[in-house]
Amino acid sequence: MSPILSEILLSGFMINSTLRRRSHLVQSFSVVFLYWFYVFS
């Protein structure tokens, strides 16, 4: 029971970190896009 529970927690943590990294990438890309739009408009 304990190894299965730790494996579920580890996979959930990996999924959470991947989603957080992806949202951070989208946020930085949107900031760069807004800066580019402000400079060239």
Key attributes of the depicted protein:
41 residues, mainly alpha, rod-shaped
Can you walk me through this structure?
With 41 residues, the chain is an all-alpha fold. It has one domain. It is built from 1 helix and no strands.
In a nutshell, what does this entry contain?
With 41 residues, the chain is mainly alpha-helical. The protein is built from one helix and no strands.
* Distance between the first and last residues' Cα: 60 Å
Q: What is the typical, i.e. mean, pLDDT?
A: 88
Tally the beta strands.
0
Main sheet summary? none
Q: Could you tell me the strand content as a percent range?
A: under 5%
How would the blueprint of this fold be written?
Blueprint: H1 2-40
